[in-house]
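wait is this the right file?? whatever heres the structure
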C-alpha cells in the first residue's frame, strides 16, 4: 500500500513597501516563496501580480487596514520608510502590532542613524548618534523592532543602507540643473550601494543573518560626495557641479539637502562578506556607473 504524503506549499513571505528595491527583490524570491506585497495603491495591483507577487491592499498609517496581514506570513521584508514627521515611526509601530511570533524579518534602515562621524571609518559596533528627524525616526523603528523580536521570539536583522543608486537612480537631473557641490576642503565622505546588490543582500540576510544583527549594506567605494557627482558627470558627458563653500551653499540649497551634505562617514562592509557571503556585483560606484552608462547608451 502506497503511503500518502501531504503536499507542502511554499512558505509565505510578505514585502512591506514594495517600491523599486522590492521589485528588484521579487525575482530572487518568487521561486522559493509565495510572495505577498503590501501596497496602499490599488492601481499597483496588476504591476505586482505581473512581477510574481500577490498584492495586499493596506496602509501602514491606517491600522484597521492591516488586520488581514495578521498571521499571513512568517518571513517578512520591511522596506517602508517612516512618515515625514514626528520622532517615532508610527508605521513600524502599527506593523509590529500585527506581526506573528517566531518569524523572520529583515528591516532596511539607514546609515544616517550614525550622524556626522567626521569622515571616520568604522564597523557596526559604533553607537548610533542621529542628528536629524529622519534618522531619529529610524533609530526609533530599530529599537521598536528589537523589542518586538525579543517579546515574540522572532529573528530580526537590520540592514543599514546608504545612498542607493542604479541606472535610473543617478543624479543626472541634478547635474543638468547645475546644482552645486561642496569644495574639496569641506566635502563629506558618502557611501553607496547599487539597488540590485541591495536586493541580493536582503535575500541573503533572510537566510544567513544572525539574530538581532546589524549589517552595513554598503559597497567598497571610498568617495567624497562631489567626487561622486564628478564621476557621473564625466561618464555621461555632463558639466561637473560647481563647487561652493558651505557658507555659500547654505544660501542655495534646502535644509534637507544641506543635511545630506553635512554628514561624513565611511562604513566598513566586512560583515556582509564574512557572515552573509555577499559578493557584490558592483563592488564600487565606478563599476556601477560604468555599467549604467553602457546600458543607457
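ok assuming it is, sequence goes like this
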Amino acid at each position: 500500500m502506497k503511503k500518502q504524503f501531504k503536499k507542502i506549499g511554499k512558505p509565505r513571505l510578505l514585502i512591506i513597501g514594495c517600491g523599486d528595491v522590492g521589485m528588484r527583490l521579487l525575482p530572487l524570491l518568487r521561486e522559493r516563496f509565495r510572495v505577498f506585497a503590501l501596497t496602499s495603491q490599488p492601481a499597483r495591483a496588476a504591476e505586482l501580480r505581473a512581477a510574481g507577487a500577490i498584492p495586499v491592499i493596506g496602509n501602514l498609517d491606517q491600522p484597521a487596514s492591516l488586520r488581514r496581514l495578521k498571521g499571513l506570513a512568517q518571513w517578512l521584508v520591511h522596506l517602508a520608510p517612516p512618515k515625514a514627521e514626528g520622532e517615532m515611526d508610527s508605521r513600524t509601530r502599527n506593523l509590529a502590532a500585527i506581526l506573528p511570533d517566531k518569524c523572520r524579518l529583515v528591516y532596511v534602515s539607514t546609515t544616517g542613524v550614525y550622524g556626522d562621524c567626521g569622515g571616520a571609518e568604522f564597523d557596526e559596533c559604533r553607537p548610533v548618534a542621529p542628528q536629524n528627524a529622519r534618522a531619529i525616526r529610524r533609530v526609533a523603528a530599530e529599537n521598536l523592532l528589537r523589542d518586538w523580536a525579543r517579546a515574540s521570539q522572532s529573528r530580526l536583522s537590520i540592514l543599514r543602507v546608504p545612498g542607493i543608486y542604479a541606472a535610473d537612480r543617478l543624479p543626472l537631473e541634478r547635474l543638468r540643473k547645475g546644482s552645486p557641490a561642496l569644495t574639496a576642503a569641506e566635502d563629506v565622505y558618502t557611501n553607496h550601494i547599487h539597488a540590485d546588490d541591495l536586493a541580493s543582500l536582503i535575500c541573503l540576510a533572510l537566510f544567513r543573518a544572525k539574530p538581532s544583527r546589524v549589517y552595513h549594506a554598503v559597497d567598497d567605494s571610498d568617495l567624497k560626495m562631489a567626487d561622486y557627482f564628478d564621476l557621473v558627470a564625466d561618464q555621461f558627458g555632463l558639466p561637473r557641479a560647481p563647487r561652493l563653500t558651505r557658507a555659500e551653499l547654505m544660501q542655495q540649497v534646502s535644509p534637507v539637502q544641506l543635511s545630506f551634505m553635512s554628514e561624513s562617514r565611511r562604513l566598513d562592509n566586512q560583515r556582509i562578506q564574512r557572515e552573509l557571503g555577499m559578493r557584490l556585483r558592483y563592488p564600487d560606484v565606478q563599476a556601477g556607473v560604468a555599467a549604467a552608462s553602457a546600458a543607457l547608451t
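The chain has a mean pLDDT of 94. so i think its the right one actually
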